[in-house]
Amino acid sequence: MALAKRIEALFKKRCAEFKEEYKLNFGVYYTPAENLCHTALEKFKEKYGVLEDISDKDFFTNSMHVPVWKEMSPFEKIDIESQLTGYSSAGCITYVELDSGIKNNLDALETLVNYAMDKDIPYFAVNVPNDTCLTCGYCDEFNDHCPECGSTDIQQLRRVTGYLTGNYTTAFNKGKQDEVHHRVKHR
Amino acid sequence: MRYAGLNRNDMSAAPGVSVSFFTQGCPHHCKGCHNPETWDFDGGKEFTFDTLNDIVNSLTANGVSRSLAIMGGEPLCEQNAFLTLLVVKTVKERLPNTKIYIWTGYTYDKLKEVCDPHVKSILEYADYLIDGPYIQELRDITLSMRGSSN
User: Fold this and answer.
1) Does B136 touch chain A (CB under 8 A)?
2) Are the beta carbons of B105 and B28 closer than 8 angstroms?
3) In chain B, what residues touch A108 (CB-CB under 8 Å)?
4) How many CA atoms lie within 13 A of A163 on its CB side?
5) Which residues neighbour A101 within 8 Å (Cβ) at sequence distance 6 or greater?
6) Which of A90, A145, A179, B79 has most Cβ atoms within 10 angstroms of its Cβ?
């Protein structure tokens, strides 16, 4: 964490210097890296090869996020990321991956949102699988078929970089598809 | 004593965030059961003093107050009633404000009729009881906190 803070502090300082020098509004932006997550990784691999937990997947974890495959509670994830959000003046997000049951549990949602606000998270998101049966209209989390009517004509939405872009298995690029597969729920 | 598992941040079981404790072993064997791996009384993991501490500590981890949800397996059958009582008694003594939810395949009337002393004490500690077996023919996945409409 000390190294992460040093890096973010350097970015923040440089932006402040550029702001003064060019009289333009520079800021640190924690990017979703929709395409960069994969193209930057390819460039990195050309130069440094495959390094465990760094370049051994098809994507880089973007922004200052906890690596998407690390198992931890939503509260622990907020604790870690909230230490870095303050260095960003141009935009950042902290999200947690949850089971779809949270949709029927407003008390739990309120607990999480209040926790994130208490930790000064400027922008907080909750990701739940959003699958819809195109035969009967039932919405929940599916594996490969609708649990209500058994149909396999289903649409599976996953929120990975802010957009609900249609079926993730076809609409996402290679890097973000691989990221979906590596993401774990925070429990 | 054996148990099936522990979910430290369950947001599907009960209102708010819960610690869900799954007992191991079940006599009901309901058709269409969601957790058939919890039927075998010899399955699951060994319950130790550390497990008990883990449950209590998880209830307030990160300064967030949670409810305790006990399911299974069958927490109130004779093989599991002592362990369930140990858990609910410890939790209510150490954290008296904790809400306790228990799921059982027995009906409340049946439990009153059998009148097991452990079960009687458990029901005094419990705040909510969701009772009755899962009945496949009455399956309704839109219901909260239970799988069938009985």
Assistant:
1) no
2) yes
3) 11, 15-17
4) 11
5) B11, B12, B13
6) A179
Peptide bond into A150 cis (omega under 30): no
Q: Read off the tokens for A158.
A: 């996953």
Residues contacting B88, CB < 8 A, separation 6+: B68, B70, B100, B102, B122, B125, B126
Six token digits for residue A47: 């130069």
Average pLDDT over chain A, rounded to an integer: 91
| Residue A122 C-alpha from the chain's centroid | 15
Cβ A74–B9 below 8 Å, yes or no? yes
Q: How far apart are CA A133 and CA A139, in angstroms?
A: 6
**Whole-angstrom Cα distance, residue B117 to residue A34?**
60
Tokens encoding A98 = 């949850």
User: Among candidates B24, B77, B75, which has minimal Cα distance to B46?
Assistant: B24
First-to-last alpha carbon distance for chain A, in angstroms, is: 22
Measured CA to CA in angstroms, residue A168 lies from A63, A161, A178, A180, A182 at distances of: 21, 11, 10, 8, 13
Where residue B147 falls among pLDDT bands split at 50, 70, 90?
Answer: confident
Which residues on adjacent β-strands are paired with residue B3?
A: B23, B45
What pLDDT, on a 0 to 100 scale, did the predictor assign at position B28? 94
The pLDDT tens digits for A91-136 are: 999 999 998 888 889 999 999 999 999 999 999 999 988 889 999 9
Place of tokens 């989390």: A141
Chain A CB within 8 Å of residue B8 CB: yes
